Amino acid sequence: MGQVINNIFARSFRSLSRGRNVSGYLMIAPYLLHLVIFLGYPLVFAFVLVFHRWDIITPMEFAGLKNLTRLIHDDLFFKALLNTGFFLSIHIPLQIITALFFADLLNKKLKGQDFFRTIYFLPVVVSGVVVAILFSQLFAFENGYINGIITALGGERVPWLVSPQWAMPSIAIIVTWKNVGFYIILFLAGMQNIPASLYEVASLEGATTWQRWTRVTIPLLNPTMVTVIVLSTIGGFSLFIEPYMLTGGGPLNSTLSAVLYIYNQAFYFNHMGYAAALGFAFACIIFTIVFLQKRFVTKDMYS
Amino acid sequence: MKKITAYTALVVGALIFAYPFVWMLSASFKPEYEIGDMSLMASKWTFASYQLVFDTIPIFSAFLNSIIVSLAVTGAVLFFGSLAAYSLSKLKWRGRDTVFNLILFTMMVPFMVLLIPLYTLVVKFGWTDSLVGLIVPFMMNATALLILRQSFLTIPTSLLEAARIDGCSEWRILRQIVWPLSIPALITAGIIVLTANWNQALWPIMVIRDEALMTMPQMVLLFTVGGGAQARLGPQLAAGILLALPIVVIYLIFQRQFISSMASTGLKG
Amino acid sequence: MLVADSHRRSPLPLTCFVFVLLFSLAACQGQEDSRGGTEGVIRLTYWSSQNPQERAVAKLLVEQWNRENPGIQVIVQPLPAGQSSEEVLLASIVAKTTPDVCSNVWPGIVTELVRANGLVALDQFANFDSLMSSRIPADLYDRFRSPDGHYHQIPWKSNPILLQYNAGLFRELGITAPPRTYSEFLDAAKKVYLDEDEDGHPERWIGNRKIHPIWHERRFDYYAFYLAASGGTTFDLDGKFVLNESVSDQVFSLFRELWKNEYYPMTELKGDPFDRGLIATKLVGPWNIARLRENATPGLEYAFSPIPVPDDYSGPAFTYGDFKNIAVFSTTRHPEEAWRFASYLVSKEADLLLLEYATQIPIRSDILTDAFFADYFAANPMVADFAGLVPNARGVGHLRAFPEIMDALAQQFEAASVFGVISPQEGTRKAVDRIRAIEDWNQ
What we know:
The structure holds 3 protein chains of 3 kinds.
Chain A: H1 2-16, H2 20-50, E1 52-53, E2 61-62, H3 66-72, H4 75-106, H5 113-125, H6 128-138, H7 145-152, H8 167-192, H9 196-204, H10 209-220, H11 222-237, H12 241-246, H13 258-267, H14 272-297
Antiparallel strand pairs in A: 1-2
Helix pairs in contact in A: 2-14, 3-14, 4-8, 4-11, 5-8, 8-11, 11-14, 13-14
Chain B: H1 2-28, H2 48-56, H3 59-90, H4 96-106, H5 111-124, H6 132-135, H7 142-153, H8 157-165, H9 170-181, H10 183-199, H11 202-207, H12 216-225, H13 233-253, H14 255-268
Helix pairs in contact in B: 1-13, 2-13, 3-7, 3-10, 3-12, 7-10, 10-14, 12-13
Chain C: H1 11-29, E1 42-48, H2 52-68, E2 72-78, H3 85-95, E3 101-105, H4 110-115, H5 128-135, H6 138-142, E4 154-157, E5 162-166, H7 167-172, H8 182-192, H9 222-229, E6 236-237, E7 240-241, H10 245-260, E8 281-284, H11 287-295, E9 302-305, E10 319-320, E11 324-328, H12 335-344, H13 348-358, H14 371-379, H15 381-389, E12 393-394, H16 402-418, H17 424-442
Parallel strand pairs in C: 1-2, 1-3, 10-12
Antiparallel strand pairs in C: 3-11, 4-11, 5-8, 5-9, 6-7
């Protein structure tokens, strides 16, 4: 049966595919079909949903601008936005400094650097679920590993995930720990592209280590820097598993992230229309931020 | 002297990134009441934590589901992605540039916009509680397409022309010339898609409710937060180890390819 | 090498074909019916609760049913795993994967399930009234009437919430009677407080509650205390949300005191902290007796008392009843048979099994007087403590979007009671404002 159908297809295909452009269309067709169904349609439907009230179990109702007026008055929407900003303001600098530090070490061409690179990259390939389980113990207040170390050194225990002040910084530390290996590799690749002659000139002119960094390395790493900042920003807005598993968005909504809030609205309270509106709002904000970052952090991103 | 400082820093870094996993592994074999201890050693080693995991959740079927889903997605992405990439790089047809720009544009659409409408679409198709709902929406991937296209562009057109003169169909050219010359790109794209898919948890928790159809990340997540672990730490850590183990083993074998693959997504993005 | 073979088949169309096939196959999968009967045998799917004790009861009952009814074979499955059974049931309504019968339906979501046309109205069946009146008085089963006038659930078990306390520890500390009022409760909390290493933080607490603002957790603390202090008045007054604000303030204040003085810990305690002697009280339903019977440390002495009330409260003890009822889902192809099976689940014999295995209280007005159950209660006086409270156990009423209402209260509970960043009065006021907005939205 399959054979027969296949033969029919094959014959009609052959008669069709005399020209190279027909093959071209046929080969891109599955991709485009999928694109239309699973990206084009949802995108249009998301826009439709913004103007509707829908709990997914009863028929959709037109709601005009109700979702949007609700959004403007929704404290939690702004809270999620502020939380994301707070997260990024810790995560991005921490990530860049740590990644630069280790990338520089790995760039010294010491023996065994492959081994260290492998280890630094390990958390990147592991699921966020595993990382959350791990840190729920490491960052536990009572009997937590890290607080154990701190008290052994004579310090006060830190209320990592349980205080509204510490919870988001803790999550920023966890996410940095998980992702920094990736950014180390990016910076390392960037550093290896810097011509050695530039450093030679710098040392001939008597530049200090600090000047070598600020005058040569960092300016020449600018394109990588933009990539790192843009990717981290998008990552910050997509934050989900860590707050979902570790804090449930609390304490006092201090770790409520954009995606977690969308998820709660859609799956706890069945507000599909409102969740779609939230998705659009957050997406517009990301677009603007990323656009500004590309614009102002560098002038010659594409050169 | 400088060297010693550098090595010290490197070792401290290695401890920061690897020690938590070592501790996790050791703690998962400790009796529950000793997990709070700082030491890596236990008074006795036990499988009790793993026993509880195996007794409460069908982790083995989750493992199979994960394998089915990640292999199906990766296979489909590579197959359809290379068809499309070949068409976009080596064949000439009207509207090609427009289509390519369209695909580039789709990469900029944040996933959170699609989250809800894609979920309702999957509901409409009746794909909730079915592995199809985890596979089909992710069968195409623009990142993979770009990586493959980039690689295909480096293949000299004269080679393809020669084959065409010999009467080869485009499909056969793709299969017999392009693929063998693009194995590194296929591996790169494959690794990226496979890792992302193996670790995916958000989409499954939306689409799958039936325990028999859950993949590893979802099952371990629900086991941890949903009371299956009875708030006991050992079983949570054990479940985490089981989830991490397959991908870590593959990573340690192919670490060079992993690192360069992942880096290439960032460098071209 | 690359010479064309004129008879080769190009696999490209095959690929497209496979792709289309996969799509259509997948599309069909949603409609495939696993309950298709073979040779006249009707198959029903029944979801029971997940805990091991109830699974055992369900298994026994289904085995017996299948022996006696060869023409109607039932397959029993535990409710699929999820954060809560409410979330799972709503999701399965959406996905149209509901079973024929489920015995773990919380009344708080029945209103939503009915709106979604997810449930079969049970009063259409001839023997509905006789079955109901044989179990419970009319005013009680009237509480489960849906706003549309029909009944969609068989009241099954009530699970009143009580305060479980460590009797041995209380005696040791000189607490002679279990705390009845807020003052007595705080007093006991002070005595239980133990800071052995003198770091300013205790290692023993009067109790603990999850501090994450998860709405369904608040049924067992805020809502149970609210019902106890308000004389059993639910939020539902003829379909309108009504909150007694001064009672809500009192409950918020009590819990503020508990957290402020570190009588309740801020962090999650691993394992079973009651069993380990870390906490002295716990808010539980009768199901916990079965759990303790199987797992408690030998020598642990425990007992139960009603939920504490404000000092000026006078009147009988009320509490929250975590009702779980039986419903027939409208996806069933055999409503008659599903109904017959559902009513089989509430026979006297089935009720006794539920008591014996799961120590959960069936909703039966005569349960403490009927000779059939007398032996059981004589042997299990603690379960009788719970059963005696069933008439004063209150559920949640029929408000729309109840989970969202509880979420609004949970958010303010966290702010006012757990962290104390706003006053109890402010917490109540903010919750009410939010709930009014939810009601407006649902208009």
